[in-house]
């Protein structure tokens, strides 16, 4: 199938890191050569390939530190891959103007940093910046889009609140509202359920499901396999040794695979058509 039909395509994507070297180690390398100290790098990702079309959802599942955030930030263009490339709509993402790329993909990081005060509405409106010209001000339509996003995440009435007075869960929902305001074709979600209580977890996943029905593609880190089963079409298991496994939820979310992935036995069960996994 033509890559132009794909919202995103990863082609043989790899990412490695150099291990930390103390000043003494660096001096020894200079004096005696790097070969004396063995391999000082590690592979976070190796040869990852997949594609997503409109309305498809890919769930990333794996232990802490396995490389899920590294993959997402590489797909978002925040890290340069060691090898391979990322295509957005058939184009090499590194060759796309950053403003144009930001109208196609949006990234939700694990942490929100707010060194300066701002109102909730002003923060949500930053999602409109890729759609504005250099000297443009937000229009009434931009304000409407931002207010609708705040309403969708349950923050109606918070418009004038200082973001530094929000709870962790409220700040997370504001970050999600900002992504909705951005109106991308692709959502890259790194632990979108962080800080959220149970009712808001399901509400947020249902909200992104509506984005999917509207034609957006999603890639999301989900730590709960049952929620990955419920909301994702495809699953990428990230093993932590650089290797991954891609397949349908039925292929990937099995007792055997998940028990090996997490290093702990899990038992699958089903209630009223919903699948869950219980640690033993």
What would you note in describing this structure?
The chain is α/β, with parallel strands linked by helices and 280 residues long. It is 34% helix and 26% strand. A 6-stranded mixed sheet has the order 6-7-8-3-9-10, with helices on both faces. Strands 2-1-4-5 form a 4-stranded antiparallel sheet, covered by helices on one side.
Using brief descriptors, characterize the structure shown.
280 residues, alpha/beta, six-stranded mixed sheet, globular
Total helical segments: 10
Share of residues in strands: 25-35%
* Mean of residue pLDDT values: 91
Main β-sheet, spatial strand arrangement: 6-7-8-3-9-10
The largest sheet is: 6 strands, mixed
The total beta strand count reads 12
The shape, in one word, is globular
Radius of gyration: 21 Å
Structural class: alpha/beta
| Low-pLDDT segments, ≥5 res | none
Question: What is shown here, in short?
Answer:
With 280 residues, the chain is of the alpha/beta class. The chain has helices spanning 23-32, 68-75, 98-104, 120-125, 140-152, 168-182, 198-213, 225-231, 249-252, 255-262, and strands at residues 8-18, 41-52, 57-62, 83-88, 91-92, 105-108, 186-189, 217-221, 234-238, 244-248, 266-271, 274-279.
């Amino acid at each position: 199938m033509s890559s132009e039909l794909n919202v995103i395509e990863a082609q043989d994507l790899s990412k490695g890191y150099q291990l930390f070297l103390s000043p003494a180690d660096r001096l020894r390398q200079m004096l005696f050569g790097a070969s004396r100290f063995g391999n000082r790098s590690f592979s976070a990702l190796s040869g990852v390939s997949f594609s997503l079309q409109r309305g498809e959802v890919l769930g990333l599942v794996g232990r802490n530190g396995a490389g899920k955030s590294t993959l997402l930030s590489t797909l978002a263009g925040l890290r340069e891959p060691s090898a391979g490339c990322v295509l957005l709509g058939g184009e090499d993402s590194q060759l796309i103007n950053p403003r144009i790329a930001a109208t196609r993909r949006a990234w939700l990081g694990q942490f929100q940093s707010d060194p300066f005060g701002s109102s909730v509405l002003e923060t949500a409106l930053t999602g409109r910046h890729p759609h504005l010209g250099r000297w443009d001000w937000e229009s009434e339509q931009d304000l409407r889009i931002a207010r609708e996003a705040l309403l969708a995440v349950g923050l109606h009435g918070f418009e004038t609140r200082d973001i530094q007075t929000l709870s962790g869960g409220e700040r997370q929902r504001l970050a999600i509202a900002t992504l909705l305001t951005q109106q991308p074709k692709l959502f890259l979600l790194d632990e979108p359920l962080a800080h959220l209580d149970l009712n808001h977890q399901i509400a947020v996943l249902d909200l992104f499901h509506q984005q999917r029905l509207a034609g957006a593609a999603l890639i999301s880190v989900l730590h709960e396999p049952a929620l990955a089963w419920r909301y994702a079409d495809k699953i990428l298991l990230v093993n932590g040794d650089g290797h991954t496994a891609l397949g349908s939820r039925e292929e990937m979310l099995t007792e055997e695979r998940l028990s090996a992935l997490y290093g702990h036995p899990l038992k699958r069960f089903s209630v009223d058509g919903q699948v869950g996994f219980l640690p033993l």
